[in-house]
Amino acid sequence: MTIKVNLSRNIIFTTLANLSSVLLLVLLIYAGRVLGVEDFGRFNFALALGSVFALATDIGLNEFTKRAVARDPGVAGKYLGNVLVWKMLLSVAVFILIVVTANLLRSDDTTRFLAYLLGLSALVRTYKLFAQGLMQAFERYKLYALAQITHNALLFICGVLVLYFGAGVIVFAVVFLSVKIVDLAFGYYLLASRVILSRPRFDFGFLREIQRKALPIGIYAMTVELYWYVDTILLEMLSSDLQVGWYSAGYKLFEALLIFPMIICQAVSPQLSRLFVSDKAEHRNLMRRIFKFAFIISVVVIGCGLIIADDLIVFLYGAN
User: Taking a C-beta distance cutoff of 8 angstroms, is the pair 285, 78 a contact?
Assistant: First the structure.
């Protein structure tokens, strides 16, 4: 009974948090209409480049930490202090790679500067995801939802305002990064005041061991991230900002549909982690229910998407 009650509560708060991501979709659609196709293409190329490289500051540690803390909350402080220091060291190296790659791939200053700004934004996002992962591990889904909804609402309001008053793509990217930094501070305030407070640590032996164990998760996550974003980067390299802008218009809708599997995965992952070591039979039963539910949603979404895709793109972005 407790498992079912907790799972229902987790799904409700996770659904609220992820539904707020619709605000980001609306913001990007509005940006596409206001900025024009080429600047929208530049923005999405820089965002994709930053997202791919930023994952190298994680290498599976976010998910591995969430799983470990869900099974034994007593290790949270040790994981939090060590992983944050390790991510900071990796972030310096990753940002240098972003700068070098942006300069190799693009010659125009606008796209390069966008890559720097949105690369930093992607790095900041990985720290926020780590904090939210710990909230999920402790099953503090109310706090998780608060952190996510606050971020999405603040980014939507600030982004729409600067675009409405005629800001260009650079100013839009600066606001994008600024909101991410403010949101990161708020997320770690919630984590420290309501969940777990830890001091920075650097235990090389501990980090080496957990990084070794987390590596398979990291390789999988990097493969998925490349699958999602390498097409945008390749299109920018082989074609033009105009082509990337057109492609991104439809691709943002695909990203929005990821909300459905994300709700399921985020809601059940802590309980699956615990059940895997405590009750294998219940673990298998829960997995079966998840797969059934996910399959039904997939069929409905794919069917509706095939029917309304053409009209939806024109309605959202305009005929131009």
Answer: no
Is pTM beyond 0.90? Reply is: no
> Which of 310, 319, 211, 268 minimizes the C-alpha distance to 8?
268
54 burial level (CB within 10 Å; 0-12, 13-18, 19+) = buried
Amino acid letter for position 116: Y
- Work out the end-to-end distance of the chain between its first and last CA atoms, rounded to an integer number of angstroms: 54
Instruction: Give CA–CA dist 59/78, Å, rounded.
Output: 18
Sign of the alpha-carbon dihedral angle for 27, 31, 37, 42: negative
181-204 confidence digits (pLDDT tens): 999 999 999 999 999 888 888 999
Q: What is the DSSP letter of 58?
A: T
| Residue labelled with tokens 């994981």 | 79
Residue 2 exposed, middle or buried by CB count within 10 Å (0-12, 13-18, 19+) = exposed
Q: Which two tokens stand for residue 72?
A: 């034994």
Please, which pLDDT band fits residue 235 given cuts at 50, 70 and 90? Answer: confident
- What separation in angstroms does the CA of 72 have from each of 77, 93, 250, 269? 11, 32, 42, 14
Neighbours of 100 (CB within 10 A): 10
d(CA 155, CA 159) in angstroms, rounded, equals 6
